[in-house]
Amino acid sequence: MNREQIMRLRGLLRKESLQIVRDPSSIAIAFVMPVVLLLIFGYGVSLDAKRVPLALVIEQPNDDTASFAAGFFQSPYFVPVRFATVQEADAAMETRLVDGIVWLRSDFSRQMLSEGNAPIGLIVNGVDANNARLIEGYLQQVWADWLAKFAATQGLSLKIPVQVDVRVWFNPAVMSKDFLVPGLIAVIMTLTGALLTAMVVAREWERGTMEALLVTPAGIYEIILSKLLPYFVLGMGGMLLSVAMAVWLFEVPLRGSLWLLLASSSAFLLCALGMGLLISTVSKNQFVAGEIAILVTYLPAFILSGFVFDIRSMPAAVRLITHIVAARYFVTILQSVFLAGNVWPVVLPNILGLVFLAAIFLGLAYRSARKSLE
Amino acid sequence: MLHRVFALVIKELLALLKDPKSRLVLIGPPIFQLVVFGYGATYDLNHVPFAVYNEDPSQPSRELVARFEGAPAFQEVARIHSDAEVAWLINRGQALMVLHIDRRFSRDLLHGASGRVQFILDGRNSNTALLVLGYANTIVADFDSWWASRHGWSNPPATLDIRARFNENLESRWFIIPGVAALLTEVVGLLVTALSVAREREAGTFDQLLITPMRPIDILLGKSIPGLLIGSLEATLTFAVAVLWFGVPLQGGLVPLYLGLFLFLLSVVGIGLMVSSLSVTQQQALLGAFLFLVPSVILSGFATPIANMPVLVQYLTYINPMRYFLVVVRGVFLEGASTYSLVSQYWPMMIIGAATLAMAGWLFRRRLY
Hints:
The structure holds 2 protein chains of 2 kinds.
Chain A: H1 3-22, H2 24-44, E1 52-58, H3 63-74, E2 78-83, H4 86-94, E3 100-104, H5 108-113, E4 118-125, H6 129-154, E5 162-169, H7 176-207, H8 209-214, H9 220-249, H10 258-283, H11 286-303, H12 316-322, H13 326-340, H14 344-373
Helix pairs in contact in A: 1-9, 2-7, 2-9, 3-6, 7-9, 7-10, 7-11, 7-13, 9-10, 10-11, 10-13, 10-14, 13-14
Chain B: H1 2-18, H2 20-40, E1 48-54, H3 59-70, E2 74-79, H4 83-91, E3 97-101, H5 105-110, E4 115-122, H6 126-150, E5 158-165, H7 172-194, H8 196-203, H9 205-211, H10 216-245, H11 254-278, H12 282-298, H13 311-317, H14 321-335, H15 343-366
Parallel strand pairs in B: 1-2, 1-3
Antiparallel strand pairs in B: 3-4
C-alpha cells in the first residue's frame, strides 16, 4: 500500500466512524440488541422440563401405591394431581391441564406381590415429542428409585442384570442452559453482523451516496475495507459483551482460552459482515435488503446451525446445506470452547470453514459492487 | 366506501408484487425454507455414532453389544481398547457415546450379581445426550428382561408400560413442522405490513393518502387486507406441504384451523402496521419488525416449551400471538382439537389484533413527524 492509498483509507475510515457515532442506530444494533436478546433468550430458552403437571390415577389405594405415589410428590420434576378415574384424567390431558397420566390398576398390589411385573400404565402427551421423551426419562428415574427403596424395605435383594453408571462429560448436571447460551451468542451475532452492514449500506445505495463514493479515486476494495473495519470493531464489542454475560450472568463455564474464542469470533464476524455487505450490494434497496436479511440470517442460524436441533439428526442433503450457514461453524466452536476446552481437531476445521466462507461472501460483494458501477 | 378500500388493496398488492425482487422474496423462500427446515428441525437421532470399549470378551457382553449394533438408532464407529481412546473419540465428537463394559461383567452376571456397564456421553449438546441415554437405557432394559427370564431371575415387582398419546411414535417432526408453518406465516405477514406505511412516509406519499377522502379506517382496511390475503395464501401452501409432502396427519377440521389463522394474521398484521406507523424511516420499521420477530419465535414454544421458562418470562409470552397460534396449529393437526376447545387461544389473539390495529389507525393521523 502506498502513502496515497493509506491516506484515502484513513479518510474513508474517519467518514464511516463519524457516521456511526452520529447515527445512534448502529450503536444500538451492536450493543443494545445483543444484551437485550441474550437476556430474553438466556432466560427464555430451556429444554429442562420442571414441574410437569401429571395426573395420578390410583384405582385402589393402599400402602404399596402410596409409597409409589410419594416418589412423584418428592420429585422436583413433577406436580402430581389426583384423579379418580382414567376417563377424567384423559379429559384433563385433552384440555392440556396435565402432560401425562400415571395409572395404577385395581389389581396392582395383588399382581405385584404374586407374580411381579405389575404394569404401571404411563400415558404421555406425545405432541411435543422431545418433551415427552424427557418426561419418560424422569418417570423411569422415579420408578427405579422406588424399586430400590421397595426392595430395601422388604428385605429383598433386588437384582437387575445390568447396572449402568452414566457419565456425561463436559456437562455433568446435564443443564440445557450450558449448551444453549453459547449457541445463542452465535445466533445473536449473526443478526447483529448482518443487520449492521445490510441496512446501513443499503441505505447508502438508496440515497445515491454510494455512487458518490464509487466515483471518488478510492478503489472498491478500499471502500469495502472502510465499511468493514468500523463495524468489525463494533461487532467485536458486542461479542465481548455477550461472552461476559454468558460467563458472569448465566454462569456457563469457559474452559477454553479467551484468545481462541476471540480469534474464532473475528473469523465469524467477518463472515456475518461480509454476508450483510453482499445482501446490500445485491439488493440496493432497504426494503429488499431487510427482507433478505430476515430470511437468510435469523431463521437458518436458528434452525440449521446446531443451536437447538442437532445437525447430526438431519438428513444428508440438509446437512450439506448447513455448510453455507456461517453460524453452524461458530456454534460448534463455541460449544466446544465453552464446555470442553481448546479442542483443536474440532476448532481448527471450523475456523477454516469460517475463513473460507468469509472470503466467498466478501469476494462476491466485491464483484457485484464493481459490476454495478459499469 | 367499499370501492375506495378495494382500490387501495389493489394498489398495495401491485406495489408488493410488481417489483420482481420483492415478489421473489415473498413467494420463493417460505416454501424452500419449509422443506429444508422441515427436514432439518428434528430432535430425533437416527444414527448415533458410538464406540464399544469391551474389556470382557464373553458371550453375555457380546450379546449386549450386538443389541446396540442391531438398533437402528445406533451406529458403531470404533472398537477401542484403552481409556485414552475414549477421550480422543469423545473430544473430537467422533462418538457421541462410549459403551464401556467392565472386565468382570460376565463373571458377575453368571454368579447372579449385577454386571457393570458404563455409558460415557458427550454432553456438549445436553439434549442430544439425554436422548441417547434414553435410547441406550431402553436397550439395556430389553437385555435385562431377556437375561432375567432366561436365567430364572425373579421379576421386578412392577414394570413401566409407557404409551404416547396423539403421536404414538414420538416423531418430533410432527410437532415441529406445523410450528415451522406458523413461523413462516408470521414472517410473511410481518414483512408485508411492517414496511408498508414507513415506505410511504419516507417517500412522502402517505401525506397524499391522508388528504384523499379516505378515512383512517379505510386506509387501515386497505393496508391490512393485502397482509391477510398473502398471509393466508402462504399459510395454505405451507399446510399443504406439511400434509402432502411430510405426511403430518391433519386430525382436526379446517374450521378451527382457519379461524385461528385468521385471528393470528389479524394480530400479526396489526403489530406490523403499528410498528410501521410508529416509524419514520424504513430502517426503523425494519428494526422494529426484527425486534418483535426474534423474541416472538423464542418465546412462543416453537423449539423449547414455555413451561420451562421462568414465571416472569412466561408472563411476557402472553402478549405474543405466536404462542396461541402454535397451540391451535398443533392442536388441530395432532390432537384433532375442536373449535370449542380452542376458544381460550382465540380470544387473546383477537384482543391483540384489535388493540394493535386500533393503535395503528390512531397513529396514522397523530404521527406526523
